[in-house]
Amino acid sequence: MYVAVKGGEAAIEKAHRLLADRRRGDRSVPALSLDQIAGQLSLAVDRVMAEGSLYDPELAAMAVRQSRGDLIEAIFLIRAYRTTLPRFGATRPVETGAMRIERRVSATYKDIPGGQLLGPTFDYTHRLIDPDMAGDHPVEPGARRDVSGDVAGDAAYPRVTDILNGEGLIEPDVASDAEPGDLTRDPTGFPAGRDLRLQALARGDEGFLLSLGYSTQRGYGRTHPFVGEVRIGLVDLEIDLPELGFAVAIGAIRVTECQMVSQFKGGGEDGPRFTRGYGLVFGQSERKAMSMSLVDRALRADEFDENRAAPAQDEEFVLSHCDNVEATGFVEHLKLPHYVDFQAELDLLRMLRREHAAASSETARQEAAE
Q1: Which residues in 98-173 belong to E strands, given as ranges?
Q2: For each of the chain's 370 residues, which pLDDT tens digit applies?
Q3: SS3 letters for 256-292?
Q4: Least packed by Cβ within 10 Å: which of 104, 111, 158, 260?
Q5: Burial class of residue 45 (count of CB atoms within 10 Å of its CB; 0-12, 13-18, 19+)
Q6: CB 295 within 8 A of CB 216
Q7: What is the rounded distance in angstroms from the CA atom of residue 9 to the CA atom of residue 15?
Q8: Which residues on adjacent β-strands are paired with residue 117?
Q9: Of 178, 204, 205, nearest in space to 193 by CA
Q10: How far apart are CA 281 and CA 258, in angstroms?
Q11: Cis-peptide, bond into residue 191, ω within 30° of zero
Q12: CA-based radius of gyration for the chain
């Protein structure tokens, strides 16, 4: 059992006040507003929504501010809040083929129906610190120009993988009629279905999945991937209303989808075909969606009779360690009092050292006597 710290309650209260003071920072500098965080730190907000598994930019911005920019702490806050929310129903499966595109690129075809759309991306920047960032400009230089032609609008663009599918060159994207599981309500068991694996990866830590995805490219579960398509945009959410007899759109959310085209497998009647890896996350998060799709493909090793020899192919290893909230709890609990446990270890070590010293002295005495 833990031993209480003297004055612990008062000390904790003072720690909370100090935290609030440090969070506010210099009082001569205006406080950050939620609109500023959601608008200017949107990628951080998107990550908090994705790994917190709750789509609400305002709440995510609040969590980022409350956590002083510690995104894992912000994700923890969102997860905790999410558990208090009632569930009214489930939407229909999202149709990403009808996405209102903001960015869309493919590494497999130069010319794709509708064309490549670069959209807002760091891909072509020089990765040099811009001195203008030191200023406090409401609008950055050059940002006033018309950008209406840089987004695709409401037009629907077919997925690039549909081109391969039309020729039978990639495994079909078949939707299952089975009711998907819910890892937020039921404990994850092994082996886990792909539905649960994708849920876990969508909530998983971006850095962890990035490392695993990179490992597959270095030979630890090689799948020789190509980015079939990365697309970012708005998708409609529809819910069936029994009293009306048809589905009603209740809103739209921004998502990032990645279809990874991987090495070909198979034979028999269908012949060899490319395989797929899939990633879908809230907001603009290409790195996460791509990493997710790489790991998804690696975890499908059993489906293609591949040897599971790499960490990214080990379902239990990946799903048990990808959740940053759970990992944070286990790591940071080490800061809590462990006085009794440590004293037991310390007493044991001291006893072993006394026994070792006694045995050494006896050995030395016998050698001297001889």
Answers
A1: 100-105
A2: 344 455 578 888 999 999 999 999 999 999 999 999 999 999 999 999 999 999 999 999 999 999 999 999 999 999 999 999 998 889 999 999 999 999 999 999 989 988 999 999 999 999 999 888 888 765 555 555 555 445 555 666 888 899 899 999 999 887 777 888 999 988 889 999 999 999 999 999 999 999 999 999 999 987 889 999 999 999 999 999 888 889 999 999 999 999 999 988 876 677 899 999 999 999 999 999 999 999 999 999 999 889 999 999 999 999 999 999 999 999 999 998 899 999 999 999 999 999 999 999 999 889 888 7
A3: EEEEEEEEEECCCCCCCEEEEEEEEEECCCHHHHHHH
A4: 111
A5: buried
A6: yes
A7: 10
A8: 104
A9: 178
A10: 9
A11: yes
A12: 27
| Token pair for 360 | 């050494």
Which residue's structure tokens are 């208090």?
Answer: 84
Identify residue 163 by its one-letter amino acid code: I
| Residue 208 burial (CB count, 10 A) | 18
Amino acid, single-letter form, for residue 212? L
What is the residue whose two structure tokens read 């599971």?
Answer: 308
Q: Cis bond leading into 272, ω under 30°?
A: no
8 Å CB contact between 282 and 253: yes
Helix, strand, coil shares of the chain as percentages rounded to 5? 45, 15, 40
CA distances 261 to 7, 228, 264, 293, 310, Å, are 59, 5, 9, 9, 20
The residue to which tokens 């969102």 are assigned: 78
CA–CA separation, 15 vs 316, rounded Å? 38
* Residue 275, token pair as written in the block: 């395989």
